[in-house]
Each structure stands twice: as structure tokens, then as C-alpha cells.
Protein: Rhamnulokinase
Organism: Gracilibacillus salitolerans
Amino acid sequence: MKKVWAFDIGASNGRLMLNSFDGEKMYLEEIHRFPNHPVHVTDNYYWDILNIFSEMKKAIQVSIQKGHEKVESMGIDTWGVDFGLLSKTGELLANPYSYRNPQNAKGMEDALQHITSEELFTLTGVETAPINTIFQLYTIKQNNPELLERADTLLLTPNLLAYLFCDVKNNEFTISSTTQMLRGGTAEWETGILRKLGITSELLAPVTKPLTIAGDTLPAINKELQIDPVKVINVAGHDTASALAALPLEDNQSVFMSCGTWVLIGVPVDQPVTEDKAMQWGFTNEGTIEGKYRLQKNNMGMWLLQQCRVIWEREGIETDFEKENYLFEEAAPFRSFINPDDPRFFNPANMIAEMQEYCQETSQPIPETQGEIIRCILESLALKYYWVINRLEKLTSKKLKRIHMGGGAIRNEKLCQLTANATNREVVAGPVEASSIGNAIGQWIALGEIENIQKAREIVQHSFSVKHYQPTELASWQSAYERFVRFVNDTSY
């Protein structure tokens, strides 16, 4: 049975999954998992990229110790937009900034003095947001110009990590499409935007197609880890693109949801959708493993609950999924709501206090207990997802009948059921490790072991289990939605 290594590095944890394929079914084994959080230093947030690389090498050693000496290839997918800068000699110049860096908002504001949001969206198809690579670059230009002056090459996170393994400099298409620097409908950099902002496009390594082999692991890596050379493959480098590749979408009436720290909701499309409503409603167009696009909206996900857990842990309050489910059931439903995507929840010092202040400002009951806070978060998320899917139907002129949810957050069965209830649609949840499986799919196709994505999705369907959720309590959820729209106090509604 042949095997590949799928590195799926998220914004809260990373993992190495071993994917085995016997020609008919895939099998998945978790090898190593490690935490990954931005590090706060002198009012900046950075990624500890060398620690991530070290954990990846440790994961390979663990895999070897488990008897997986013969592995065909490896692939890496990560979150979007972030990047590292290399010198002319190929050295990493600094720890990469995190998209949660607070300076990015000012950088975006200043950049928009030179080019409008409307022009950016028309040219790239990507929603204007402070996290985008283009605004991070402009922020560096303002605050740390020496770094840009010394930089020779920009590599997006999955390609930066791949470079450390194989010394090949390129930027894969799906991850490049998150930057707001790729010309919409093409795999070419939109150099005119960078010219307007005074940033050289020579920084950008070429865009390469997914499903291609970048190179082999370096001799120094092979010697250190005591392995034979392993092919490093350009999989769909953006974790959402990898997740979509693994979801068993049945037809063009299905919505995908890639669920983790963020929840990305969308539908596959052939070309970017750039009409005014798409921009007004905050939608974006990013690449797929087939070289097409996904019209999607980036939404808050488990970040809200993750940050509440940080506060509870600080206060000495233990929690886990089972306890949270019990506390959820103990709390009254539809008591108070938040707009999960309000900027105030992006990176607050105290998520619980921020939620309470929001509810007070909107004249709602203030959630005090753990159960009330968990209820407020999960119900608000589900109702926001309903809003997004309604807009997707309007933009695509399609009746979207079911939702395919994948990713680690679907382990929270409450979220899955509430999403079914709020949207009045069947939810098909699974596979959990959708990004890792999609990562492996990219490798199997590049290696010639699987013919195409359609065949791969058929294999996924009979290799991994899914769980179905049917909507319930429809009347109460519709009433809650009417309140939610009113209370979130967001003019975009």
C-alpha cells in the first residue's frame, strides 16, 4: 500500500497525517499534532515559522519510528495570506507577521488612498480586508521599510515551508489567490496594483499550478532525518481549497463549509463573480485545485469559543466538549446574539468581556454563565451562516439545498445541528480531516495514482464516514433570525 505525508498547518494547530491508498480506498492516520499560535512581541504578532518547521521534521521522525519508511511524497497546506521574505542568498529575513497584526488596519486605510476597494475587487475578485497580503506588504513598507529593501523573494506560508524542505521558490495558485494581488481569472500577478502602492512585483515568486512536483527533499534534510529523497508536491496550498477537494459534493446545489478557527462558506464557480452585490456583501473569489474558483465568504468560526476558553483557563475553570454541551443545554435558547464578524471580535484582549459589552450596547440580556456565552456564540454563528447562504443563492441564482461541512470544527456536533436548524437545510458533516485528505488527493493525482478530482471524491465517499443532520425547530429559528438581523446592528444586513 502506497503512502504520502499530508501536512495541514492551521492558525491554531498543525498536524501530519499519513494517507495510505490501496487503489480503491484511502486510510488516514494522525502521526503528530502540535499547537500553533502567533507570538505577541512589541505590539506585533508573528508566526514562529522555525518552530513550525521543527515540528514538521519531528513529525517525520515520529512517522519513521512508526514504521513508515517508504513514503511517496509530501504536501503542505496552510491558512491564507501570510508570507515570509527571503534575502538574495535565500535566508529568511525575519519571522513572518501574522494576519492578526494590529498595524494592518492602518496599512489598509493608507493604501486605499492610492487605490479604491472597488478597483481592487474588480481587478482581483478578492474582498478588501486588512489581513490580505497586499495590505500587510504596504504596512511593512510604512513601518519597516528596511525589511522590504533587503527582501528578494516573497513566499506564501505553504511554499515557504516547502522551500525549507526542497529549496524551490514558487507560489502555488490557490494560496496566491488569497493575497488580493492575483489578477482575477488568471494565474498572473496584478503588477499594476503593486506599482500604485510603490511595491516591486519582482518580490513575488512565480505562480505555479497545483498538482505539480516542486522538487525533492534536500540532501541535508535526508541526512538529518535519515530518509531517502521524498517528492515535495504543490498541493492546493490554501487549506480551504484542499478541504473543498475532499468534500463529496453531489451536484451544483451544494454549499461547502470549511470549518475551523474560521468558517469559509461558498460554492464552486468557473470564473470570479465580481458584481457589486458580491463586493457589498463581503464575498471573495479564491482558487480551487482544478484551477477554477470558489465564491465564498470568510466568516468567524471557532475563534470566538477558543478565545473564551483562554479566559476560562486563566480563571482556573476547566472545560471540554462534553461539559460545554451540557452547559449549552442548561442555558435558555435565543437569549442574546452577537454579530460574529464585527471587527471588535477579531483579536480582543478579553473575548468574554467584549461579548458582554456588545450585548449591553445592543440592549440585550448580558450572557454571564459559561452556558449562556456558549449559546450566544453558537447560535449567532449558525444564524450568520444562514445569512451568507441566502446571499449565495442570490449571487448564483441557484437553489442551494444542502450543506457539506468539513474540518475540525465539525467535531462540535452542536454547531452542525444548529447550522441545519438555522438554515433549514440538510447538513452532511465530514470528513473531519478534509484539508488533510484534500492535500493527499493532490499528491495522488500528481503521482498518477488517481485520475482526477471527480474520481478522488468517489474514493473519499467510500473511504470515510459522514454524518447527516436534519433541520428541526424551524419556526423558532426563523423567529430568532428576525431578531438576530435586528440586534446585530449591522447596516450590511
Notes: Residues 248-430+463-493 form a domain with the Nucleotidyltransferase; domain 5 fold (CATH 3.30.420.40). DSSP finds 19 helices and 19 strands in the chain. The chain has a mean pLDDT of 96.
